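Hi R.,

As promised on Friday, here is the backbone we talked about, encoded as structure tokens. Could you run it through your design pipeline when you get a chance and send me back a sequence?
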């Protein structure tokens, strides 16, 4: 499990409790990775609404790194806890932890970079100082820098994954919902007979460079590699061989 920044006593924390539902699991009963991303997205979104920062503009997810120790199974009661651990000119870093309500066991941690954008133009806008009064000094203590992501070309050897984005896959911004991208990853794991049990440690990073939508479809490719016993699965959402979003799943031994 990747080390995480613990919240301070002055940090605002927001929590959601839920059970892992039938719609969240694969046939084996483990929490799917797209459902995991949805749990993280929901606790972040509801925190923003509760803290009244959703009115500042649109918060757009640019990067999410999820470190999994294990995954809960059907019926498990889980607690999602989120708080801010860093910031920059127009973005914040949000750390979230999903744990077992009954035992306290930590299933996974995530560090996500959310960019504040103008609701009309979509351009990044500065995070107001008032936000730190709500979330506490921890968000100010860790300065996060963003380097413009270089345009990435689809790597040679990647295989095409037939994938159709449905109208219902879009969110309120008419973008492919953040969690839905990982459905493609789950599909590749199944097709390539890569079995992930609930106790499989792994790291999953998603980098969003450019949005995809129902009216602006992406071609989806995948690439599987193995080095010194560590298997990696990469998913690429592309347009004219330019990578819009990429996912990298690394399975620990």
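Update: got your reply. Pasting your designed sequence below so it's all in one thread:
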């Amino acid at each position: 499990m990747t080390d995480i920044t613990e919240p301070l006593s002055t940090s605002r924390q927001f929590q959601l409790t839920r059970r892992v539902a039938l719609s969240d699991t694969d046939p084996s009963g483990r929490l799917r990775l797209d459902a995991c991303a949805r749990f993280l997205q929901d606790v972040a979104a509801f925190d923003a609404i509760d803290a009244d920062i959703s009115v500042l503009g649109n918060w757009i997810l640019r990067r999410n790194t999820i470190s999994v120790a294990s995954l809960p199974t059907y019926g498990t009661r889980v607690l999602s806890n989120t708080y801010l651990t860093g910031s920059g000119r127009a973005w914040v870093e949000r750390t979230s932890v999903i744990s077992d309500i009954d035992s306290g066991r930590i299933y996974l941690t995530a560090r996500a970079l959310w960019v504040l954008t103008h609701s009309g133009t979509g351009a990044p806008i500065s995070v107001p100082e008032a936000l730190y009064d709500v979330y506490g000094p921890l968000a100010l203590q860790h300065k996060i820098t963003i380097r413009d992501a270089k345009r990435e070309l689809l790597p040679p050897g990647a295989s095409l994954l037939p994938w159709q984005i449905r109208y219902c896959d879009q969110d309120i911004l008419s973008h492919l919902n953040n969690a839905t991208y990982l459905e493609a990853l789950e599909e590749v794991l199944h097709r390539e007979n890569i079995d992930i049990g609930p106790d499989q440690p792994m790291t999953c990073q998603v980098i969003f460079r450019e949005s995809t939508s129902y009216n602006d479809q992406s071609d989806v490719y995948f690439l599987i590699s193995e080095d010194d016993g560590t298997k990696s699965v990469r998913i690429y959402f592309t347009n004219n061989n330019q990578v819009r979003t990429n996912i990298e799943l690394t399975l620990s031994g």
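One thing I noticed while checking it: The chain has two domains: 14-141, 159-251.

Thanks again,
M.
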